[in-house]
Amino acid sequence: MQCLAIVLLTFVTGGATCMPRRSIPEFQPTPLFTSPPTLFQLTEAINRSRNVQSLQSNSVTVNVNNERTINTNVTWAREKRFRMTASVAGVAGVDIGSNDNEFWMTIRAGLTKEMYYARHVEFDAQPNRPVLPVSPVWLIQAMGVCDIDMNKLIADPVTRADGMVELTTPEPSPIGTFSRTLVVDPKFGYSRQVFLRDPTGRLVANATQAKHEYYSSIQSCLPHQVKVQLMPAGSDVIELEISIASYVVNSLAPDNMTQFQLPGMNGYKVINLGQTGPQAITPQQVSPPQPYYPQTSFRGVSQEGFAR
């Protein structure tokens, strides 16, 4: 069964160039704390990310295993609505998405058209995940939108040798309790790393975040460069380097949610990641769905529509 790296590496025949970013002093984070913060202060700073209700960008580049860079569009809305798409000459190439009930990942490589699909409840109940160790929605945590309940820490905060603070909380699931560790900058109050371990303690996903920018509309920072590692069961590590030139923040209209509907499965060989055995594969049918193009990206905008 193909892994996500193959999915992304094979959909285009040539590389894409990264979009340029400008570092604007006005958007650079300023320190929140001049002395070591209390646990309450640190979690309050992290939980400002709860102000983020939606994100959009059409200036995202994804480099896969240091071999190929593709330009993508990203849209997310709480809680599990996510879409990442890429196309070549108007033809759908990659479509990774999720809604509250299910997620999917489609590819188009030559004449082969496949859709990896699962209902969240069925995928979460799978103990061994050979294609994806986590659903695509986890990428939002990797991209810095995560909060924490200080009353549910598995252990006391750990201050590392580099001064960063580790906060570990449980992540319940049908197959046992995962653990998530946020590595928090005690000076700026945002996360720099996130680690996810399965119930056996095996590391299944991690992300390192950099180039944070401050968004006054949400009183919080978002990283614009993220390095992700995914460790499927029994497969090679998948490495993604995600670069975001700019975001639209909290501007997704409540009636603009049709983009998170499951695309038509006609035209695709469907592999159900929530099931195992021959019944998990549905043979290819007829024509593929049309590509989706999100709103043009610009600097952060509040829900009231005022630009920063």
Distance between the termini: 46 Å
CATH C-level label: Mainly Beta
Helix content: under 10%
User: By helix and strand content, what is the structural category?
Assistant: mainly beta
Which residues form runs of ≥5 with pLDDT under 50? 9-22, 302-308
- Provide the domain count: 1
Radius of gyration: 19 Å
The total count of helices amounts to 4
The name of the CATH architecture is Clam
List how many beta strands DSSP finds.
16
Shape: globular
Q: What is the name of the CATH superfamily? A: Lipoprotein localisation LolA/LolB/LppX
What topology emerges from the helices and strands here?
Blueprint: H1 4-9, H2 39-46, E1 54-64, E2 68-77, E3 81-88, E4 91-98, E5 102-109, E6 112-119, H3 120-124, H4 138-142, E7 158-159, E8 165-173, E9 176-184, E10 191-197, E11 203-215, E12 220-230, E13 238-244, E14 248-249, E15 269-272, E16 281-282
Parallel strand pairs: 6-15
Antiparallel strand pairs: 1-2, 1-13, 1-14, 2-3, 3-4, 4-5, 5-6, 7-8, 8-9, 9-10, 10-11, 11-12, 12-13, 15-16
